[in-house]
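Lab notebook, bench 4. Still working through the backlog of constructs that have no structural model yet. Next entry is a single chain of 144 residues. Request: give me the structure tokens for it.
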Amino acid sequence: MADFLNLIPIEEIGIGMSASYSQTITDADIKAFAGISGDRNPVHLDEHYAENSRYKKRIAHGLMTASYFSALFGTKIPGEGCVYVSQSLNFKRPIYIGDTVIATVEVVKIDLEKNRVFFKTTCKVKNKIVTDGDAEIYIPRDRN
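Model written out:
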């Protein structure tokens, strides 16, 4: 884990570098995300509705996990001033209230010529992958 990182020049980023962030999902998180995103699907907000769904209780928004990747990119590696280019996401398992999500980003490729860094992105709950994918980040040369 690389908690000390915040503004890494692309030349100092290496394959295998990683950073992680953890968040325990609360009712307030889900309601706040619904308010911000506009996604008020009752499977996220209505206990009775969720009980009759395939999940049997309320679940967190899958895209909430992508926001954890964004937090890592903007504050840890590569840090301030970087710009998201793309993100693929695979939602593998539901996330419930009370689950602790551990998001991890790991450098898998660097393109110095185009100022791009490519990452494997993973979120786990109880050591099981709930979301994974790949991200591409652009690092402006003049971030200082």
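Notes after review: The domain at 10-138 is CATH 3.10.129.10 (Thiol Ester Dehydrase; Chain A). The chain has one domain: 10-138. Flag for follow-up if needed.
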